[in-house]
Every structure is written in structure tokens, then in C-alpha cells.
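ENTRY TYPE: paired fold submission
RECORD: A
CONTENT: sequence, then C-alpha cells
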Amino acid sequence: MFFERPDAGETAVLVHVDFQDEQKREDAGEFLELVRSAGAVPATLLTGSRQRPDPRIFVGTGKLEELREAMVAHGAELVIFNHALSPSQERNIERELKCRVLDRTGLILDIFAQRARTHEGKLQVELAQLEYMSTRLVRGWTHLERQKGGIGLRGPGETQLETDRRLLRGRIKSIHRRLDKVRSQREQNRRSRARAEIPSVSLVGYTNAGKSTLFNALTSSEVYAADQLFATLDPTLRRLEVEDVGPVVLADTVGFIRHLPHKLVEAFRATLQEAAEATLLVHVIDAADPDRELNVQQVELVLDEIGALEVPMLKVMNKIDLLDSAPRIERDGEGRPEVVWLSAQEGRGLELLAQALAERLADDVLDFSLTLAPEQGRLRAALHELGAVRDEAFEEQGDTRLQVRLPRRDFLQLMSRLGERPEDYLPEFMSDREAWEEQGAG
């Protein structure tokens, strides 16, 4: 690996600056959670306010001196900024403080490196870290002579940097090739599910909103869930049975965060593609979070970036146990479920979510009456085998009257298996040509 990782338990001085520009503001409480998730020990949090960052050292000279004193007082060996620093700012601060400096992007990358478990996840994290570190590579060789030109004046520093950059470029190309293979396999799996017409539901949401807890509650799985940021990194797929719909693929995805580094969005694009190509998105929201509306906006920004904002969405207001609220379903003007209030931790309201999923995914469920002659007993038996018969009555002449309800795909698969024509039973399946001829005849 070409990147360096801080050891767990490092004592760190934290820096958080409020800017007048709302777009540049970060959340100090979330910053503390990120630091703890990375395994660092926050010694103190230095705060301040500025109109804009200093182009050389990000903060002012007075704040830099305050930082130096805090480092000595707490015996800290690391400074972490709750902001993205340019390579030159990071380098200048390190030179002034004589210690390692980490910015918000580097901190998130480190958490991702700790949490990646699958082969694909590790490759994606390494790719993001290498691309991030490639712009900061120079700091590792500042103790070496620079190439100045002229006979006898060429130092080893520049040569070593060029060698390392070449190694980095080679490694990045290698990871891209390996990820392309993984992505093609994932794409093939998605195409297979599409051919089988199996709906897919992706859980998305701000980090620590309770997605994995809800995922475990719905699928009886044991996906790692903890009260920390980015507890889940690698996507997990499970089969879920939904009434009136049948098997559904449920995906638990990485949580989003405010100002999620662009390199991470790019690196995890293949993983996030599960959300972009889902039949339905379940947006899990921490109902008790005072910043929940801001969090919702951040999630929608990332969804827009990966082209998933147009996918149908069902919102889930989780953690109602912290609000002392009752489980319920909110519906839109057409009566469709729009928001489900529940507590995944306590298991309250899960049946309402199952009902809402069935309603949202069962838009393509057929509900019709069918009269079968005695010689059509094979079709009648097949419908019973699928559990599609809701009611059955026998008529005097021997015909059977069935009330049938089943997903459209199951009906079409059944017709194909029995060699029957769907349009013989339901006019809506009449082919375009037959419909045209009928209209012409009329």
C-alpha cells in the first residue's frame, strides 16, 4: 500500500471552522463521531470562524499558534481538520506544527479502509486513497534535495518522486482493470435478475440512520450494525418474500454523508449502481435527528449524482422510539404509501413497512376472474400450486369459476410453461397486431 494509516487510539487535536458560506459549513457533532469511528481519541476541539479559508494555512496565524499550544498541552501527535485541505495547505500546516495533519476527506477514507470487507470494497477504497494521496506524495520527500539542474546539482528527490508516481499510476491502472471485471460480474447479475423479473429494493440514507438494523429486522440477517458512522460499507444482498409480489432482492448500501468526497462517489459508483437500477428505493431517515431535513437533501444530492433520483422512493422515518411516536403510514393524494414511521431497533411498525412494500411493488399484480372448463384442470392445478386462487366456485355444467390474484410475471411464466396464450384469458395481453386488426375491423 502507498498510503499511510493512523494507528487506532491516536490522540488528536480537532479543528472546526464556521464559514459564512452555508455551502462550506460542516457539522461539529458529526465531526466528533467521524473521529471516534476512525479510532482516534479527541483531545480537544478548537473552533473558530472566518469569512474564507486562508490560502496558505487555512486558518489564521493566531489559530495556528493556539493549535501548537494545544498539541503540546495534550501530547497529541495528529491534527484533524473538519474540512477539505489542499495539498499545499496540508503541507504548510505540517511544516509549521511538525506533526501529521489529516483533513475530512482523508479521515473518511481511513474509516472506509477500516470497514471494507469484500474484495471489491477493498479495491474501491484503495483506488480512492491512491488517487487522493497521489497529490500529496511530495510531502514524503521534502527532506531530500530537489533537482536544480546543472552538472553535479541533480539531487535524488525528484527522481524518487517520479518513480513513486509511476508506481502509483501503475497500481491505479491495475485496480481499474480488476474493478472493471468485478463491475461486469455485478452487471451480469443485475441483468440476470432483470430477465427473471425479480424486483430489487435498495436501502439508502444518511450514515447511521439505521439502514443495517432495518435490513437485519426484515431479512433475519446478521449484517454488522452499530451506532457509528459508516458501520456498513460493502453492499449486502438478501432475498425477501413480499406478499402478492413474491421474491424481492433487498440491498443494504453504504451510508451517505454531507460533502461526501467526490473521489469516493466515483470509486463506489459500481456499488451505488444497485440503487440507481433498483425497482424501488427505501430512503431510511433518522426521525429523531434535528438535522434530518439537511440529511435528506444530502442523500438526494448523491442520488442525483449517480442518476438514481428518478427511481420510485418510499421514505422510512426510523427511530420513532426516540420520539415516543406511534407507527403509521402516510399516503399521497392517490392513496399510495409515501412515508412509513417505525422503529427498526424495537421492531415496531415492520408489518406496516411490509404492507407498504407490497402495495408499492404490487402495481403489476393481476386480479381477475377466470372460468375454466373441466379439461383445463392442468391450469387450475398450476394456479393452486402458485397460491394464486383467492376463491373458487363450481358451476352446474362442470366449469370452475376462480378468483385469481398473482404477479404479472408469474402469470406470463405460467402461460409460457403450459404453452397457453395470455390474451386468451386476459384481453390486455392482446398483441399490438391483433389490437390494430380489431380496431380496423371496428
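RECORD: B
CONTENT: sequence, then C-alpha cells
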Amino acid sequence: MPNKGRPREFDRDAALHSAMLVFWRKGFLATSMNDLCEAMEIRAPSLYAAFGSKEDLYIEALRRYNGLAHQLIWDRIDGEPTVQEGVRRVLLAASEVLPEGQDTPSGCMVNLATMGHGPIGTAPDAVKAARLDGLKALRSGIERAVASGELPHGTDTERLSRFYMGVIQGMAVQAYDGANQEDLAGMAEAAMAAWPVK
């Protein structure tokens, strides 16, 4: 009879989620292995066996965070009658998600990685890729708006995409510093005033 090995003593998905919250709150450098083991409710050998190194765990946690960010923020660009309304919905969704919640830290794990929270080794490439995902979502929507005639054909789609990405990154930093949902929603509406008029 084949030996199936000892079953895992923890829920890997739940443990990864807990690790994501620790990295999000403290950043890569300030997070210790003890912090992770305590939050994940596992011992160091189990952590290494399941996830590899601290850096590997960070990258996996970052990918989990980015998937959630797409569901909660970036995917909203496609759910409205116009791209303009989609971008507004993205900004307003960010204003709801970025302030500290009952179970989540404030700010954005991806953007905080640029503020001394970031990792060393190969993980910075994963951080950069996660940031570019948001920019790509905005660029895709804005390019679609130009193609459909919603925006003027001379619109600089790269510049406009980077502008709205910069707004969201600024919202993340301000949320980290204590801005609330109303503050961030005001930023979102002010940013929408810059939407080009056809």
C-alpha cells in the first residue's frame, strides 16, 4: 500500500491569506519569520515545506493580493455603460477598499512596497508586475474609449492612464496616513473632473 505521507495540519489557503495580511501591514523587511508563523499558526518547518523561503511566500502573498485587487477594484472598469463611468467606479471602489477595514490594513500592499516595505532579491519584479497590472487595466479601458469614439482620437492614452494610476497610488498613500473613505471619494471625483471632454 503506497505511503500517502502525513497530511498537512493546516489550511494552506487560510495560512497564505494570513501571511498576506502581515506583509501588507508590516512590509517585507519588517516582517519576521516569527510574525509569519504566529499569524499563520504553523511552525517554521511547515512554513518552509509549504511555501519555500520568506521571499517565495511574499511573492505568493502578493499574487493573492493582486487577484483580490482585480476583483474589488480593477475589474470594475468593464462593468459600466461608458469607460468614463468605469474609471469613476474604479476610483470609488479604491476609496472603499483602501482605508483600514475591520479585517484589513490601510493602504495598498503593492503601492506600499515602494515605501520601504518592499523585498530584496527577485521579489521586486513581482511588485513591479503587480503595479503594471493596474496600469494595463486602465490603459486598456482608455484605449477602448478612444476606439469607440467616447474619447477624442487625439487623446494621449498613456498619459491619461498614468494620471489615473497616479491618483490611485496617491489615494493608497493617503489611506495609509489615515484618510477615510469620504476623503478618498473626494479625490476620486476631483480626478474625474480631468476626464477629457470630446
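NOTES ON RECORD B: The first helix runs from residue 12 to 26. The mean pLDDT is 90.
STATUS: closed
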